[in-house]
Amino acid sequence: MLLLFFAPKLGTQEKISYGNEKIAFYGKHQAGISTPMQKNIYFVVLDLHTTDKDKIIQLFKDWTDYSAKLVEGELVKKRWPECSLAS
Q: Which GO MF term does the entry hold, naming one (predicted)?
């Protein structure tokens, strides 16, 4: 009886499957908090060369659009030639 108590329950261990599942970018909860861990993660460092608030806001709007497309497996079109991510 003691052995059964400490034995792992069958079917309760999470299977890791990369690349087959799509998680919605927009939704009730942020992806990555209550969803399975992703295979890859990317960080971005921004070196802004402007203090124009409207340009900075647009940058983050574009970045959000790009992120949503990448989550869906879509390619992002090139908007800024100097941005290697957009290629």
A: peroxidase activity
Q: What is the pLDDT of residues 5-33, one digit of tens each?
A: 455 555 555 656 555 667 778 877 777 67
Give the integer Cα–Cα distance in Å for 61 and 83: 15
Q: What is the mean pLDDT of residues 43-66?
A: 88
Q: Helix H segments across the chain?
A: 2-6, 53-71
Phi, psi of 48 (to 5 degrees): -75, 135
Domain ranges within the chain, ordered by starting residue: 39-87
Query: Is residue 81 scored above 70 in pLDDT?
Result: no
- Distance in angstroms (rounded) separating the CA atoms of residues 33 and 5: 30
